[in-house]
Amino acid sequence: MDFSYKKFLIGLLFSGFFFLSIYWISSDFSGILKVSKNANYFLVIFGLVSYSFSLVLRSYRWNYLLRKNSSNVSTKKLTPIVIVGYMFNNLLPIRTGEIARCFYLEHKLGVKKIFALGTVAIERISDVISLSLILVLTLIMIYINSESSEFINYLPGNKYSFILFILLIFIASLFLILAPFLRLKIYKIFNYFSSNSNVFIKKFFKFVEQFFEGYFSINNSTKLFKLISISLLIWILEIIMYFFIAISVNLSLDSFFLLVLTILFFGTSANLAGIFPSTAGGWGSFDFFGILVLISFGVDDQLSLAYVIFVHFCLWAPVTLIGMMIFLKDWIPLKKNKKAIDK
What we know:
Blueprint (H helix, E strand, L loop, with lengths): L2 H23 L4 H9 L2 H26 L8 H17 L5 H13 L3 H32 L14 H19 L5 H13 L3 H17 L5 H28 L7 H17 L12 H12 L4 H42 L1
């Protein structure tokens, strides 16, 4: 069985489980169409603008990590490549689009794909740390706010196991992002094994070495602080989109502050659910955990389902369509040139 086929089946299995769980929570899907019809699309557009800024900021962050290896990169050049990467992520299972993005980068700007993959890995870890920090801050605000403190008792499993789970994710991510500070020791171990290996193993170590070059782009505390700061801003901009869409579909709670806490918790939890395998675009895990959070905060189950699916569609559709147009614009001339060469 082909490896990509295996990944597809694993993602399909997890997504199927999450969608069955969603069906168990709310079997009435009629609210999705109603919400999409009655939404205030002026506010939805404001949300999409905020999301667009987050994509540009993602390109700036990637430029910050890549420029050590190439002077040819810039935020302007990387933005369409990041969008194409999102398109691939939305069409391929288990975030395979991240690999496709690195291949596309090499094709467009000549940056080594393995080096780029190392920078993507450090990006993803900084995302997990940033989301965990926002989630911890949200939990603190929930705990001290009398209107929402009872929500703590409705956390999945129980409050202690949930907080422990988030803490473990944060500590693991922190350990991984601090690995570049131990690069000299890691390289020493790496060189020892590579010098005492056969040709095949040496080729593998050459691959790993290129990956480490990208992964070790962040090698001092100043760079690390800047990376985490950029990542925090990226996610704040994306969560602002969720907030605009919540207002556009009249998702209301007892107070404005409680609504802000709800959207913060929804945004962080649903995106941290990306650590679970799923089909293309994260369909299943994002929706299940997002709905669970909203219902726990007292939002109606049908409205929770409709809102989460609507948000996910807004995340998925525009960037996929734009990414496809950018990719086809590059791909069609490439195919024509290839045919001309063959002739």
